[in-house]
Amino acid sequence: MSEPTVFTRILNGEIPGDIVAETERVFAITDIAPQAPLHVLVIPKTEQYKNVTELAAGDPSLLAEVIDVAKSVAAGKADGEFRLIFNTGAGAGQTVFHVHAHVLAGDLEERALVG
C-alpha cells in the first residue's frame, strides 16, 4: 500500500494546513506557495483519483462538488471571480498525484501562451 499523499496527511491532521472550506467529500486549503493573491486548493477527500480526467470518468458528481466548493470559496474571498486550474501530469505541472483544483483570484491577467 502506498503512502498517503500530503493532502490526506493535512486532512488527517498529521501535518499543518489551513483548511478554509469542507464538505463531507471535499476540502479546501490555502496553497503554501501562492501564485496569486488568492490561491486555494480544492481536494476530494479520496485518493482514488490521480487527476481530473480520472475523476470525471469515475465520479462526475464528486467533480461537480469540487467545482461547487471552488465557486463557494471564490464567492466568499474574491467576489465570485476566479480562475480554476487542474494540472494533469508531471509535464503539465502536477506535483501531487491526488486530484485537486487550483482556485486563483485577484489581479490576474489573461496572457497568451507562447511556444
From TrEMBL:
Pfam families: HIT
Any one GO MF annotation of this record: catalytic activity
InterPro entries linked: Histidine_triad_HIT (IPR001310), HIT-like (IPR011146), HIT-like_sf (IPR036265)
Active site per database record: 100
Coiled-coil regions listed: none
Motif annotated as Histidine triad motif, chain positions: 98-102
Domain HIT: 6-113
Protein name, entry field: HIT domain-containing protein
Organism: Microbacterium sorbitolivorans
